[in-house]
Prior knowledge:
Blueprint: E1 2-6, H1 10-21, E2 25-29, H2 33-43, E3 48-50, H3 52-57, E4 61-64, H4 71-77, E5 85-88, H5 108-115, E6 120-123, E7 144-149, H6 152-164, E8 168-171, E9 191-195, E10 210-214, H7 221-264, H8 267-273, E11 274-281, E12 289-290, H9 291-305, E13 310-319, E14 322-332, E15 346-358, E16 361-369, H10 371-377
Parallel strand pairs: 1-2, 1-4, 2-3, 4-5, 5-6, 7-8, 11-16
Antiparallel strand pairs: 6-7, 9-10, 11-12, 13-14, 14-15, 15-16
Amino acid sequence: MKVAIIGTGNMGSGLASALATAGHEISIGARDLVKAAALADTIGHGAVGGGILAAAKLADVVVLALPYGAAADAIKLAEGLAGKVVVDISNPISADYQELVIGHTTSAAEEIQKLAPQAHVVKAFNTIFAQLLAPDARQGKTLQVFVAGDDAAAKVSVSALATSIGFEAVEAGSTDQQPLYRADRRDEYPLWLLPRQRSDRGSSLGADLIELKFLNERFSTEHLETLFKISRSIMITSSHMADGLATVQANRQFMQRFVLFINTADPTLATELVSSNAVFFVPGRPDPVSGPAGYLEIINMMRSGFPDIQWTLEETVAEGDKVVARFTMRGTHQGTFFGVPATGKKIAVQALNIYRFSDGKIIEERGQPDLLGLLQQIGALPSQ
């Protein structure tokens, strides 16, 4: 499917990446043409980037991956989007989740439809956090995307997009039935978001922590305010969970690349993964070494004694900006190490390292390899 993503923020880049990977033809539009082109280049899979109008003209489906307040300007720049399926992913709430910016007599999707009267507006993805757009981040869970709008064919197209990137598309009705399409209306609240546990899949993630529940009766202002506060609390909690899940996933991916670095001593990877100001505390040395060059020095010191040394990452534990990693070092003693001449003996030694991160790079490591076990295995010390 030909899809334009308008916006280069977390949702825009996440949707563009997921949809491009799934085989869709992606064009990315933004006011900043350079940023749109750079995002397209990063995503690959034939994605292209440029201005909003140019991106929209290439597509059949246009996703407004923007805050609600930016939609009007984008639609104007896209010259109205006549005939296009337009996906509104916004939630018209304030940045602190305290207030709806509209919703007393209308909804975000209805207002966008007024701005683009010849387009087919569909509400979708507004209950999915950006951190959960990548399939790996969902850890095998199938999350639901609620799809609502007045045009049946448009909803089929948007449902197909959601399904193609691993979500379960859920039909949520039309404006006449007032389900999700008017989920941001405070005067009627035809549906609301409430916590749930899915018995068929266990505890779900992110947007799957919420359940649509149709409310056919009107509520007092006090009831509505209470429900709004409950929903806001759920959204904040879900966001924090998604942030944590994304951090764990990012740490896991980083450590996979880090293992590749230490097993190859690749100086390019050293620069990408290790901060120039990083410090490394090495057993047996009174002063730490620093930067990518310092870490390469550690690796080359080990390679001088064990030219075939390889590290296997056994497990990691992450908290905040720190990761604790347990490795197994394996190699053959073929060079002098700690004054011990080569013996030809093989080693398999445990190491426990604590890493601290900043801006996506290592800034500190405290290593605790089992040097006693290593020296015993090469015969430098008795094993008993």
